[in-house]
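new request in #modeling-help
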Amino acid sequence: MTFRAKHLLGIEPLHPTEITTLLDLADGYADHNRRGVAHRDVLAGLTQINMFFENSTRTQASFELAGKRLGADVMNMGMQASSIKKGETLIDTALTLNAMRPDLLVVRHPHSGAVDLLAQKVNCAVLNAGDGRHEHPTQALLDALTIRRAKGRLHRLSIAICGDIAHSRVARSNIMLLGKMENRIRLIAPPTLMPSGVADFGVEVFENMEEGLKDVDVVMMLRLQKERMDGGFIPSEREYFHRYGLDAEKLAHAKPDAIVMHPGPMNRGVEIDGTIADDINRSVIQEQVEMGVAVRMAAMDLLAQNLRASRSPAEVMV
Amino acid sequence: MKTTFFANARLIDPVALTDGPGAILIEDGIIKEVLDAGATPPKSANVIDCGGQCLAPGIIDIGVKVSEPGERHKESFRSVGVAAAAGGVTTIVTRPDTLPAIDTPETLEFVERRAQEDAPVHVLPMAALTKGREGREMTEIGFLQDAGAVAFTDCDRVVTNTKVFSRALTYARSLGALVIGHVQEPGLSEGAAVTSGKFASLRGLPGVSPMAERMALDRDIALLEMTGARYHVDQITTARALPALERAKRNGLQITAGIGVHHLTLNELDVADYRTFFKLKPPLRSEDDRVAVVQAVAEGLIDIISSMHTPQDEESKRLPYEEAASGAVGLETLLPAALRLYHAEMIDLPRLFRAMSLNPAHLLGLTAGRLQAEAPADLVLFDPDAPFQLDRAALLSKSKNTPFDGARMQGRILGTWVSGERIWEGA
């Protein structure tokens, strides 16, 4: 057993062997999911609460499905409409929830670090489903599993991450994870969408997409948030697509067998051309969604094992 | 006539920049004579044996937030006075960023009355430069000055309207009033929680470029050339702002600069996993910047060290980092924190007290801040080496938001005297 973490708050605190352990387990779950093998005993008797302080359809559905496939009792709480509007602080919300004795808490929050703060106040396992611009660990893990299955390995690959890196928690978690697994990472973005201090990240930085994509094995596109499109960070949608949108011409600079990824939801015609997204020979975007469920099953399985081990026998029986 | 003789002291003299054995005789709250180590006390004097420990002029702390009026649960004049005494601070210069802001002679008089009733240390109030600190209309600078305001500042709010600011500076100059400004280019720093760079990006927190400080300083320096006002920058925290400051001083402008002790002793990495007690305004900087500003204090380019005492209650700090309030309490940890620079051999004790006592006195036209005959007997006796571990629950401030909780520090304040009266006796 080489997965010691109590919570999954980010990729940063994970050791490479923990990542591999999780991916190995997820790999098995992915196959079982395809064959329809059920595992309803794994989280049986445990309660999973999904607490989303920010809108999400896909991630929340993926966590819900993962929990249900493993037999957990899953509850969704849409927090945007709830008590924070009534002035309750995050910590009070956490304490209230903690009193309901959940076992797994899946949290998304618009502020960086909010999930860490919450994890300090509860005694269940916390999974970060995205906090501000900080981390989105399950997304990076599902990307890693998708790459590993497509390329047969997760090291010594040349991987380009393109788009709004400055505001992307997906990019941060991926840079962290792919770096830990010893890959070459290239960041491609207009300078206004590049994070500060990027030169110290141990990555190669490109402002020109054709140069950045040269001979890469993997092309990861990021979503450009609508509110960043007009004037503030880039001049316009169409200029962005012209310079940084992934089309066949730009993709031709990558290796012939390079795969194309996108965390979704896509803006077709803004960051990615529709025909590339739908090209079954290049795009693994649907596989990413599939691996998402498997990775989340594996993460909750491992955290639940650690949780059970940490609780005294008497407590488990209650 | 009441005389007290401080025997067997290690005198820290920020004027002569000396640190050596000696004795002091005080009479009726005034320093009568500074004597050699071998001097014998007059027969009538009450003798205090300093045991070879450091005796220095009491600290004059510019920029202390007392949360009266408005938020007395965070800090009152009583609690701030006790905290100051425990920290060896004999004069606090209070900020007007209260609720409401201190922007009329009437609110200023309230503050003075409360200070008189409750605080054992000298309290010198500052007043807002613009009404409501809103940056639109200047306050009654003349009336406020008559009522006792020692300086005019909108605290951490920058007067963004350059015309308003230049008029306020011009008007203040005609009265010889001191204006204290905060330098952060407001457009760049809006919404920022940390200094931009690798750390900010890793934590996913919105950052402000350290350049924002220099940009705002450049504007203010140009305005000083225009208006000839007397101007003090509350905090210079980045290396990039230093050459501009140095040039402005060399060109003969009436400009001085301060820095909070936290920016001299901590850096951005101390924020670690979103520790909101380290959220300050301006945010903590890189280690390179910290070393540069420590050097600037040692050289005298940065004139003044303050605690930037900012009480915040638990509720305003126990929030996600971006939402949490800024500021830290500092009166009781100012000297032990500053002594870290002494123990690191970056600044010697006379120079530390030049920045904490003498220069603030100069700036405000006070005779305190020095160990000389005729100066007020505002003194601090401390052991610079005594180690301790800070427990924030033990702080005397009502608010406990210190970034030094659990930190190992050195420096115990053994005694504090204000106008010859002992107001603190440390263990």
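bot summary: The mean pLDDT of chain B is 96.
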